[in-house]
Amino acid sequence: MTQPIQAEIVAPDQLTLEDRRRWRAFQQARPELASPYFHPAFTRIAGEAAPGAEVAILHRGGEVLGYYPFQRRGGRALPLAAPMADYHGVIAAPEVNVPVSALPGLLKSRSAAVTAWVGDRTGLEPVENVAAAAPDGWEAYRADRYAAFGKFFKDKERSRRALAADAGGEVVCAIGRREPELLDQIVAQKSAQLRQSRLHDIFRCGWTVDLLRALMACQDEGDFGASIAVLYAGDRIAALEYALHADDRYHFWFPVYDQALRRSSPGILLTWDTIRLASEMGRSWFDFGSEDGFYKKYFVNAGTTVGAGITRAQAGASPAPRHRLAASARRRWAVVEACETSPLGLARGAAAAAYAAAFKINASRSA
């Protein structure tokens, strides 16, 4: 009879060099784990920033089979760096399957929640993440997009010319930037957008900004790291986007743009130019995360189905609620729960989430 999988729970900084090498080998053996979020360097850095960070070392009979990074919030286990991480799952040998339903027992938690689970999705709600695949390089990708949405991209080239004329200077994109002041600008704009949309400000808790700074400062993990792409219109910054990258993967993460220039679509121009420049550097998969966002459909030609839901000890996995308002309320609370670690922060977040939910319900009734 096969022995059950067991877990040893350790702090991320307790992982040995051999653990990290084994982890990387597991990741490279499974194409579905190619995202930078599965890189051992992400766990090392996030483990220093995220409160309650831990790693489950999965083993059977003394043989290490895989790893699962997570963070504790009360009696619940959440993916490490939630709500920031767009992918999560068990990093294990190809023949090893660990379902979400096994997590509470392995992690010694009352429940475990996932929003973008890569792996066995039994009992979970399927969620589509989308990407731009350019395996044959920029010119082939460009031709593919023009064949699908030629009118759209020709219109954006007119927008580029209009933006240059308005700015009195050339429209230029630069990628791989790491100046702290650029990150400060992204955080300030994104925080303002979240508050204006009555969403929880994920940067107010502090540790999430610390994570972005640390990822951007990482220079010793080969091709892994984070950086910022900038679109300049003359001397003016028209758009910015913070991205995570490793190997051939480039993950768009936090985009912002100058609202005064929105008629010229600076964010879309930045995305287009970023794909061009990064593909010329060897990137071939540009991940946008969730399919939310009208502009993404013009860029994406590939995707990944992930899972969302909650699994409770002795109760199995249950999908995220399907009803629109219930699902919205659950997502709002999940963000608060993941970000905030103090009673005051949780109380403030819960009150704001309740107010936003009530506002949405009233708006839907009056529509």
From TrEMBL:
Any Pfam family matching the protein: Acetyltransf_6
Q: Which residues form the BioF2-like acetyltransferase domain?
A: 152-297
Supply the enzyme class, top level: transferase
Keywords carried by this UniProt record: Acyltransferase, Transferase
The domain of life for this entry's organism is Bacteria
Q: Which GO terms describe its molecular function?
A: acyltransferase activity
Under which EC number(s) is this enzyme classified? 2.3.1.-
Q: Which InterPro entries match?
A: Acyl_CoA_acyltransferase, BioF2-like_GNAT_dom
Query: Keyword Acyltransferase: yes or no?
Result: yes
Q: What is this protein called?
A: GNAT family N-acetyltransferase
